[in-house]
Every structure is written in C-alpha cells, then in structure tokens.
Specification:
The protein is mostly beta strands. The protein folds into 5 domains: about 110 residues, no CATH class; about 400 residues, Integrin alpha, N-terminal (Methylamine Dehydrogenase, Chain H); about 180 residues, no CATH class; about 170 residues, Integrin alpha, N-terminal (Methylamine Dehydrogenase, Chain H, 7 Propeller); about 170 residues, Integrin alpha, N-terminal (Methylamine Dehydrogenase, Chain H, 7 Propeller). The strands form 17 sheets. It has a 9-stranded mixed β-sheet with strand order 38-40-42-44-47-49-53-52-51. The chain is elongated and about 105 Å long.
C-alpha cells in the first residue's frame, strides 16, 4: 500500500479538558486486556474529578489494528469506556498520574498491570500509590474503592515530604519468583541525611492487601534502597534496568541528580542495583564501593546526570541489557567552539558483569558505551529518555530521547548563533522534539542529535506548536498496531491549552523526520487473522501475515513467511515451519517476523522434519514470552540455545521446557553435565542448570542433550603467587592421549624463599570440574615444578617444548629470567623438563644437574634470557622438536635445536651458530623483540615448523605501540635471521597491530589447527585493546595459516573476519590477551582449542 504524500503513520490522543496536562507522563502499559496488542497509559495529573481540583486521572488506551482506529483519539471517549478505560483519583490535590508505568504482571494472572504515582507539589498532603490489575473490560477504575473491588492494591507512603511517587516503574523480576516487582522513588526522604532520598522495591504478590512502605523498609515484602549523601535526592528517577549482568535476575537503576562525584558539584550519579532474592536493605554507598552493583558517575559539574534513567534494552546486541542516563543540563563545546549551555546529553552504558564504577567521561570517550549530544542550546535533551524497543526491525533495541524545550526549525532559520543562544526564529519556541536513535553494534562513536535530525542513524519527531512541550515524556509504546515493529509514544502536556496531547508514532524502517501535525492512521499492514476471547485456531498461508489471537487458549499456525504472532493471554500454541524460522533468522532493517506468546504458558511448536531452530542466530527481540518449545514435529529436529536465549525467552519465568522424542536433539552451551529428574503432568524431564545463573533448562526424557562444554577453571594455590601469569598447552606429557596444560606462578615462595616460582602441570581431562593447584602439588591430576633459587621468578614464562629428546613424550620449558649464573646477575636460565608418566614433583636444581632434562644458560649479565620461552616445533626438519628463547633486553631470540642428551646449553654458543641460530631485532630501537616468542606450527605448509615473535612496542603504519608480530619460516641452516628481512617478505611475513596503544604481540602462540583446514593457525594477544569501547578489555586475534604469499597481515582485517577472527575481552581493564596459547584438543572434538 502506498501512503499519501506528507502523511505519517500514527495517531494523536487529545486531552479531555483545559489544564488537565494529559501527557505529563506516558508509558507502554504492556498488554492490559490480553488481546495480544500492547496498550498505553497516559497521566493527566491536573485533571478534575468531580469537584476535586487537581485530583488527577490516568487513561488506559487499548492497542488496535488498522481496522479500528481513526487519526484522533479523544480521552473523553476513553473515559466513557470506548477503546480503553479511565482511572479516577480518590480526592482533590492528589495529582494522580504524576508518574505512570507498566508494572509488568505483578499478580501472575497473565495480564499486565499498572502502577500510578501521585505527588503533591506542596508536599503537605500524603498521597498514595496504586497498583491497578490488568482487566478485559472498560469500566472506570475508582482508586478510592480499589481495595474493596479487588482490582488492585494501595501502597501507603511514609511522609508527604518524601515525595514518594515522583517516579515509579516496573522493576522486572528482581527476586526471581516469577512475579514482576515494582520500584518507587522517594527523592526527598531523609535516609542518610537531609533529602538523600530512598527507593522502595515492592515484590509482586497475588493478593490485593495494602502495602505500607514502612514495612518494605523493614524488609517485609521487599527492600529499601537508601541514598548515599544529604541532598542527593536519590530516587528522583527509577527504572527497571533489565538484566545488566546476565545472572537471570532483573536489575534496577536509581538516579541521584544532585550527587557530586569526585567534587563535581551536582554532576549527578546513577546506581545500578543487581537483582537479589533477600530483603536486606541496600545502601547506595555500598553500591559506590562495588558491592551488589555499580555506580555511574556524572561527567561535569551541574550536568544533573541521573535526572532521567531507563533500561535501554540491548542496544549493541551482546545479550546484556544496556542503560541510558540523561543529563539534561550538560553543555557541549570547548575553547575552540561555541559552547551550548543546557543542550543536554544522554549516555548509553553497555551491560556488564562486573561491579567496577562507570565514569560518564569514559562513556563520552566511547569506552563502555557512547554519548548522545544534544542539538541546540537550552533544548535540555535527555530530560526524558527511554528504550524505544525495536522500531526499525533490525533486531537491535533503539532509544528515544526527549528535548521538550527544543524548537523545530527549517533550514532558512538555522544559524550558529541561534543554535548556541536562541531565541528561536521559527515561532515554535518549546514545541519540543524527540529523537529516535537506532541501536548499533560494535560502534561506540559519538551520536550527534543534529545528525539524527538529518536522518543519519535515526529520525527526529518535531513538535506541533509553540509551548506544547512535546518530548516532556517519552516511551516505547510496545507494538500497538500488531505489525511486528515497536511503536513510540510522546507526551506534550502543554498542547491544546494544557489539556495535553500524546502522540503515537508507528515503527518504521526509514529515517525521514516525523511532523506531529501530520500523523494519520494509514497503515501498510492490516491484521490478517484476528481472534476473540474464545479458543481460536488461526491458520495462515505462505504469505507474510499478522496474527492477533486475543484471549483464550489459541492455536496459531504460520505456514511460512515473515509472520507476526501476537498470541495474547491464554495457554497458546504457535506453530512455525522452516520458512518461518528463516524469516526469524533474517538480519538487517525491516524484519517484522516476531513471536509473542503473551500471558499464560505458551508453546512454540516446530512443524516438519530436519529443522534446526537456532536461537543463537535469532535476535532476542523476535521471540518473547515462550515458556515451552516443542521440537517433536514430524521427524528429527534440533534446538540450539545458550543461557542468554533461555533468559530472554519468557518475561514470566527463567525455566524453559523442551518437548520432543527420540531422535530430537538439544544443543545447549554452558549448561551443567549433571541433571536432576522431575515429572510434571505425566512428562518426565531432565533438568539442567547453568552455573550460578537463575535459570533451568527442562528437556523431556528421551530427547538427546548435547552440551557445548565451555571448559573449566584452574584456581591458584596461595596469595600473591600470580598463577596464570603464564599459561601454555603442555602437549601430552604423561602419554595418556589427552593434551595437558602448564601454568606458571612466578612469585610463588618455597621453603621460606620468596619469588622462587613454581610451574604446575595439569593433566588433560574430559569433565568441567574446577582444578585446585594445591591438589596438583599433592600429586593429584598432575605435578608441580619447583624453582631453583630465591628471586629467580621461575615460571615467568612456560611452554610445551615438543618432544625434544625423541622419547615419545612431550617435554616442557620453563623460563627463570632473573636467575644468576657464575656471579652474573639476571643472566637468566631456561629449563627443559622431559615428559614423564608419574605425578612426582620436579626440582629445577635436579634439571641443572642433568636429571630429567637440561638447562639453557643465558649469555651475558642483564640479558634476562628466558623472559619468553617456547617450543619451536621442528624448525630444521631433523625429527626432533626445537626451542626458542627470548631475551628482549637485547632484542634477540635464540633457536635451540632439539637433542637427546642432558648436557647444558649456552646461548653464547647458539649465537655462533652452534646447535641453533639467533634472530636479531629489526632496528636498534626494537627492545621488545623477543618479549614474546612461540612456535607457529607449520603456517605455510612446507613441512617445516615456523616461528612467531612479538614486538609489542612497534609502531606499524605510524600507530604508536600498536605492536607487530613476525612469522619466521622454518629453515634447515644455522644462519642468523634479521627481522628487517621478514618485513620485506623474505623468509616470512609481518602481522601489524590494529590501533595505537593496543600492544599487539605482547603474547603470541601457535594456535594449532583451529579451523580444521590442515594449516596451523596463530594467536596474537593485544592486552590493551578496547573492544566495543571497553577500555583495555583486551583482544586476541586468531590468524589462519596461509601458504600462498608473504604479504603483511593487518589485524584490522582479522577483526573484520578476513583471514581469521577476533576474541574480544569481557570487561573494562581485564587485559585479556595478556597471555595466550594453544590448549591442544582439551575436549577431544578434533579441533584445537585455545586458552586466553
């Protein structure tokens, strides 16, 4: 269908009476009436009820399909029960509707509920808060009789002065009991000093008894969150944060706009409080210390960050929920540009699993998120912020940012002086604007709202008339019209002589601007199959279709295409085939395919045989409120999922049941090996858990569960040992057919001698159980290698040595770079330990004596040889594995050829080409050449093993400290190698770092054959790289083997998926990639594994 020129999709909701201020607060209401379409709630806090001035009203507007809407909805019709219902205040001065929100499903009946706040501006009258249960009728709700009518419950506040109800929100399921909880802000409460503020978390419950916030403060039915410092006004904004840390419990965010982090007066703070099952009170001072959550510190004085906060959904698509924090008084500009005061900023903070504090100055720099800068001075962008849902259908959550004092301009009125200072030349002063910012992954670049206004990365919604204040409140509207794209709602309480208006803008895939004066309910999409309150079976065709089932236990059968399923309340079955699965997996803008089970216990069924439903390939936005997946079909089918998929499958439970029969298979990543058995309603399940996460996977008995094992943890022995500073594949040391590991602990003490160092050999195993290195010392599961002398730092570097002596067992090499020799300090030593089948401890003093191995002595005082050591493979093709020893202080690396005797080796002999050869650095300034060395395996497939040498301080292509690694091809002579020749493509090739200060090549290793192509691959660590804006989280690059050329490799190409892949670090300052290695085939699947 073609839209008329100038017509934009949506509709307007007009307030009832002058000065009602409808649209002062707006929110998605969830599906209140269970018809499968999302509903809306609109607050009109100044509305008159009877003779009660400023009593306040709230209006629930039901979602409707194309068939049911006109361009304008009058709240007077809603008040009469046409298309929704009204919620009337109890008495004058209550200002009901000051804040409104969906409450989620508080009482567990399958219908979404509402929470409504009241706040007397005078702070004289003690107002109350109200939870209104979802319902299918349109009779008005009288809050004065809500308890008696069992249509909800009352929340009583402590004091009028507290201003409880200034902000209210659903909290999600904080305690994991399957019922949605609530959060109420009381910004003026005196918890930790005058007006430090409080927030109350009220647990969901199935009855309608009154709640008293004093009971919540006492830990009865919830818990209190006490502010940090006097005058912070914590709780001025509160919101569900989603599941920020991925533990299966919903988290919270609390704003404190007047807080002053690190003496930045009124810069503001926001606190992320992790979900928990107990009712112990929370102190925001503890959150600031990283206990039970983390703090987000404002950027600059007087920004007032935290005035608005919200869950942002998953903006970057990493499976963790993100946050948005508004700082409406922030300014932009510097000494070199015009400063814009009051322009406002909004900060998107990516979800993370640790408790470290976030500084919004880092977010502004693209570390851990990104900043959204306002457009013009005094716009106060960020005064309201919200997740927008997935407006454009690309599978990423979008954002909406309100700037209620902005003035929509045309190009003829634009000038830099007007933008910086005003006044507005367009005549639309304070008409307001709202900006929709599309989600983006792998990108933390600054967003400029001027770009959004120009249609770059989103679109702008321009207010209608001067003084409307559109954008004062903004929210996702959910999917109001059922077309599979999320819609938006924007409040403009100043419109129509302050009767107020609210505007619903339908989801769209283009970036054209929206003019609120031109909204029209002309839609591209109609509802193809519409159910009712009875049990329906709705059967589709192969076309792209929309199903809206309504109440009842319904069956929706897709039969293919980009279908949209809105099942509504009831225990529904949604049946999909291969074509539907393909549509759900489709990536990019405009994918409307969606499965929404709605309230009840809903089942997603596969139709057909040989199907694979791979939830890891499908955006979490596309499948929601599904509690059961039935893969029985007509033949053998497969379900693939991970923890993130399970946690996002349903909003009411973290239990996913899988039905099927013999021949069907579930492939689950990271779930525990052992299962308990439970029988429910005659069906027996194997129940699997996932670590400490609040989640369970129930798989019907008879269905095969194939776990993707993630590995196991190795725990250090003693404080300050620094175990894991060096790690390596050890080869098969004990000859049992499984590859083993070696872990260095260079600061371990021994017999009262400090920093002697230890190395632990951990034998290969097939389970996921943790390893305690104290058990290895006792000879259980491996053996320990004890250093020789105090301050040797043995184990600073460790590696598999290959089979140096040709006895069929893999050997080891351990570096002790500060060891002394013949009175010369810090010469350094490296010890070759021959493989063995027992678990007895090894003493390196015995190795020096030629028992069980041999020593490699450094050349000169201060060389620190053994700073890096590695198996070199069989470089010269003589059938014995060789070794490489780095001495980065002089920039050299020594290749030591394998040998069958136990006599000591001197690197001075190697330097003269006796028993090996030396590799010299590229230039006199490459002091880090030899900092990391390793065998590269046979990268070029010529039958000789190659080498890799990391130079982490190199400056490739003018990028300081980006780092560089050199691959040196194997050769049969003893001639010296110069790395300058490798750069020229003679005898090898160079691998250039991606970004400045990444320090790539800090660690390097052979990766084995990771991709199974028959060529050995490489892994290069860049421990200070910052993936997705996470400062120094680190990266590790897997570079696939190649035999066609010696052209240089750019790690930026590897990061883009050309010639390898990147492993991004998890959290800020993790320094992942500090040590990397091939781990051998630890799990026996035929592909080599890695340890980072």
């Amino acid at each position: 269908m073609q839209l008329k020129k100038g017509v934009q999709r949506g509709f307007v909701i007009v307030g009832e009476s002058t000065d009602d201020r409808s649209g002062y607060s707006v929110s998605n209401a969830g599906d209140v009436n269970g018809d499968g379409l999302d509903d809306l709630i609109i607050g009109a806090n100044n509305a008159k009820v009877g003779k009660g001035w400023s009593a306040g009203k709230s209006y629930v507007v039901f979602g409707k399909g194309k068939q049911d809407y006109t361009n304008v909805i009058n709240l007077s019709d809603i008040a009469y029960g046409i298309g929704g219902f009204v919620i009337n205040s109890a008495s004058a001065g209550d200002h009901i509707g000051w804040s409104v929100s969906s409450a989620g499903d508080v009482n567990g009946d399958g219908l979404d509920d509402l929470i409504i706040g009241s706040a007397s501006p005078s702070r004289i009258k003690i107002a109350e808060l109200y939870v209104v249960f979802g319902k299918q009728g349109t009779d008005p709700i009288k809050l004065s009789a809500i308890a008696a009518s069992k249509s909800g419950f009352v929340i009583k506040v402590d004091s009028a002065h507290d201003f409880s109800g200034h902000s209210v929100s659903s909290a999600g399921d904080v305690n994991g009991d399957g019922l949605d909880d609530l959060i109420v802000g009381a910004k003026y409460a005196h918890s930790q000093g005058f007006e430090s503020g409080k927030s109350y978390v009220v647990f969901g419950k199935k009855d309608n008894t009154t709640i008293d916030l004093s009971d919540i403060a006492a830990g009865i039915g919830g818990f209190v969150i006490n502010g940090e410092s006097a005058n912070d006004v914590s709780g001025i904004s509160v919101s569900n944060a989603g599941d920020v840390n991925g533990d299966g419990l919903d988290d919270l965010i609390v704003g404190a706009q007047y807080a002053s982090p690190t003496n930045k007066i009124h810069a503001g703070k926001s606190y992320v409080v992790f979900g928990k099952k107990d009712t112990d009170h929370i102190e925001l001072s503890a959150i600031s210390d990283g206990i039970g959550g983390f703090v987000i510190n404002g950027e600059s004085a007087y920004d007032k960050s935290g005035y608005s906060v919200s869950n942002a959904g998953d903006v970057n698509g990493d499976g963790l929920d993100d946050l948005i924090v508004g700082a409406y008084l922030a300014k932009t500009g510097d000494l070199h540009s015009i400063k814009k005061y009051g322009v406002g900023k909004s900060y998107v903070v990516f979800g993370k699993k640790d408790n470290t504090a976030i500084d919004l100055s880092d977010i502004a720099a693209g570390i851990g998120g990104f900043v959204i800068n306002g457009e013009s001075a005094n716009d106060v962008s960020g005064y309201s912020v919200s997740s927008a849902g997935d407006v454009n259908g690309d599978g990423l959550d979008d954002l909406i940012v309100g700037a209620y004092q902005a003035a929509p301009r045309d190009k003829s009125h634009t000038s830099k002086s007007h933008e910086a200072w005003g006044p507005d030349p367009s005549g639309k002063t304070k008409a307001g604007k709202s900006y929709v910012v599309f989600g983006k992954n792998n990108n933390t670049n600054v967003i400029e709202l001027s770009d959004i206004a120009a249609g770059i990365g989103g679109f702008v919604i321009n207010g209608e008339l001067a003084g409307d204040y559109s954008g004062y409140s903004v929210s996702s509207a959910g999917d109001v019209n059922g077309d599979g794209l999320d819609d938006l709602i924007v409040g403009a309480y100043g419109a129509s002589s302050s009767a107020g208006k609210s505007y619903v803008i339908f989801g769209k895939t283009d970036t054209g601007s929206i003019d609120l004066s031109k909204l029209s309910y002309e839609s591209k999409y109609a509802i193809d199959y519409l159910g009712n309150k009875h049990t329906n079976t709705l059967t589709g065709t192969t076309k792209d279709e929309i199903f809206v089932a309504g109440a009842g236990n319904d069956t929706l059968i897709g039969n293919g295409g980009m279908d949209v399923f809105n099942a509504g309340v009831g225990n529904d079955d949604i049946v999909i085939n291969a074509s539907n699965i393909t549509a759900l997996e489709q990536v990019g803008v405009g994918n409307r395919a969606r499965v929404d089970g709605g309230g009840g216990i809903d089942t997603l069924k596969l139709q057909g045989a040989g199907l694979t439903l791979d939830l890891t390939k499908i955006s979490d936005r596309r499948i929601q409120d599904i509690e059961v997946i039935d893969i029985t079909g007509s033949g053998n089918n497969t379900l693939k999922l991970n923890l993130d998929d399970l946690l996002h499958a349903s909003s009411s439970t973290n239990v996913l049941k899988v039905l099927g029969n013999s021949g069907d298979e579930v492939i689950a990543t990271g779930f525990d090996d052992s299962a308990t058995e439970k029988t429910i309603n005659g069906v027996t399940y194997h129940v699997y858990t996932h670590g400490d996460a609040n989640a369970e996977l129930w798989v019907q008995k008879g269905v095969t569960l194939r776990e993707v094992k993630c590995g196991f943890v190795i725990k250090g022995e003693s404080e300050n040992d620094y175990s894991g500073y060096s790690v390596s594949n050890a080869g098969d040391v004990n000859g049992d057919g499984l590859d083993d590991l070696i872990v260095g602990a260079y600061q371990a003490s021994l017999s009262g001698k400090s920093n002697v160092g230890k190395s632990y050999v951990v034998f290969g195993k097939q389970d996921n159980n943790a390893i305690e290195l104290s058990a290895i010392v006792a000879g259980t599961g491996g053996f320990v290698i004890k250093g020789e002398s105090e301050n040797d730092y043995s184990g600073y570097s460790v590696s598999n040595a290959g089979d140096v002596n040709g006895d069929g067992l893999d050997d080891l090499i351990v570096g002790a770079y500060q060891a002394s020799l013949s009175g010369k300090s810090n010469v350094g030593k490296s010890y070759v330990v021959f493989g063995k089948q027992d678990n007895n401890a090894i003493e390196l003093s015995a190795i020096v004596a030629g028992t069980g191995g041999f020593v490699i002595n450094g050349e000169s005082m201060g060389d620190e040889s053994g700073y890096s050591v590695s198996n070199a493979g069989d470089v010269n093709g003589d059938g014995l594995d060789d070794l490489i020893v780095g001495t980065y202080k002089i920039g050299n690396s020594y290749v030591v050829f394998g040998k069958q005797d136990n006599t000591a080796i001197s690197l001075s002999a190697i330097a003269t080409s006796a028993g090996g050869f030396v590799i010299n650095d590229e230039s006199a300034h490459d002091h880090s050449a030899g900092y990391s060395v390793s065998s590269a395996g046979d990268v070029n497939g010529d039958g000789l093993d190659d080498l890799i040498i990391g130079v982490n301080s190199a400056n490739p292509s003018g990028k300081p400290n980006a780092g560089q690694s050199y691959v040196v091809f194997g050769k049969q002579d003893n001639n010296t190698i110069n790395l300058s020749n490798i750069v020229s493509g003679i005898g090898g090739f160079v691998i250039k770092g991606e970004s400045k200060s990444d320090y790539s090549g800090y660690s390097v290793s052979n990766a084995g054959d990771v991709n199974g192509d028959g060529l050995d691959d490489l892994i290069v660590g860049a421990y200070r790289a910052s993936p997705s804006g996470k400062s120094q989280a680190g990266k590790s690059y897997v570079v696939f083997g190649k035999k066609d050329n010696t052209n240089a490799i750019e790690l930026s190409a590897i990061a883009a998926g050309t010639g390898g892949f990147v492993i991004n670090g998890e959290s800020k300052n993790d320094h992942s990639g500090y040590s990397v290695s091939n781990a051998g085939d630890v799990n026996g699947d035929g592909l080599d594994d890695l340890i980072v």
